[in-house]
Amino acid sequence: MASPSLVWFRDDLRLADNPALHAAPERDEPLVAVFVLDEESEGMRRLGGAARWWLHHSLHSLREGLRERGVALVLRRGPAGRVIEELAHEVGAGAVYWNRRYGAPARAVDAGLKSSLRAVGMEVSSFSASLLHEPWTVTTGSGTHYSVFTPFWRACLSLPAPRSPLSEPRTLAGTTAVPASDTLDDWGLLPTTPDWAGGLRDTWEPGEPAARRRLQEFLAEDLPSYDRARDEPAAGATSLLSPRLRWGELSPFTVWHEAVGVDGAGGFLSELGWREFAWHTLFHSPDLATKNLRPEFDAFPWPPLDPAHLDAWQHGETGVPLVDAGMRELWHTGYMHNRVRMVTASFLIKNLLIDWRLGEEWFWDTLVDADEANNPFNWQWVAGSGADAAPYFRVFNPELQAKKFDPQNLYVSRWAGDAPTEPIVDLAATRKAALAAYDEVKRAPRPPARG
């Protein structure tokens, strides 16, 4: 009697270099592929609107890719531990495979499921698929995790090279009796009333085939000028691979090995390293999205929230051209150039004195590439409350940043040509207020670091 192999897809929506999918055919049993939309397990963060849009289309692409190879993608919704356990018993699975996750709520689900399935005799295996190095393998000489990027990345580079990517399985065999599945459209991942996703449709094509094409385009056309032009938002020199990596349409192993031999790839590869650093930090500090990594920042004197200021920032109506251009690009495309992300975040935190957590929540809802590590990690970096903190309080001057990185006003003209030109706050005065607030942090007693 057949004992199917159950492959549970998560943030790894691809066929190539998917260790869980690669392992399943080795059992020579039929395959059941499943994706679970889990918004109910304890601590699981509900996806933002832009992420839900991307997920819908990426799942559609994955479903088509599997269907062409004779495998149906089963869609189920609910607490993943219960759903996967029930499905494994329903199909009589002999083995269950998945690729690892690193957020604390997801790890708790996976650990409990692994224990319960093994207790009834099922084979359960998990694999490294989304990080070049597992978080417990990169440590200081004293065995602790790193809090500064440069020594962290130096340590990563001193380790054995990341494994080579796995090829797509040559043959896949689905079950003849396909389990019942939800309908993707019934999940309601796409916006309808109103449908605000027109700009996302114009900008992106989710799915593994499009991700592979974009990687090759970037390597051939943009990587040679990446180090020189990556900070210029109008230059179009960035990789645009972040949502592909976030949803696992590409693995970091594939990106690494495709890029590593290209001249001038060092700066780009270090961005992969920054992504690793964020995930390693989340692994050791699971409340990254809600608590200051540097607990002395708990003393930062946030004033009462001005809702009008927050609304102006969210909708690109601050009167600061580079900030408004970035926020409008974000709303239209679900994406923002990284240099501009830093400027817009700094303006919210330092000039409007609005808690970084409110900005992180807005980006979580509007970015197609928002993930539970990089989004809060980068907000905390700008705030000064996170890892790799500078020995001073960074305040990005949006006017100077525009002169330096958008000197011909191309980016601002494209996204905010009709925006207000009178700033809602005085940049110099609010910078002084932010520095004065930071003085209270410096005077506060220093509690032990979290994580």
Overview of this protein structure:
The structure is a single chain. This protein is mainly alpha-helical and 451 residues long. It is 46% helix and 6% strand. It has a five-stranded parallel sheet with strand order 3-2-1-4-5, with helices on both faces. Helix 13 (321-333) crosses helix 14 (338-351) and helix 15 runs antiparallel to helix 16. The longest helix is centred in the N-terminal third of the chain and has 20 residues, at 49-68.
Report a brief summary of the structure.
By secondary structure, the chain is mainly α. Helices cover 46% and strands 6% of the residues. The chain has a five-stranded parallel sheet, sandwiched between helices.
Helices, strands, pairings?
Blueprint: E1 5-9, H1 19-23, E2 31-37, H2 49-68, E3 73-77, H3 80-91, E4 95-99, H4 104-119, E5 123-127, H5 149-158, H6 198-203, H7 208-222, H8 226-229, H9 242-246, H10 252-259, H11 266-284, H12 307-314, H13 321-333, H14 338-351, H15 356-366, H16 374-383, H17 398-405, H18 410-416, H19 427-443
Helix pairs in contact: 3-4, 5-11, 13-14, 13-18, 14-16, 15-16
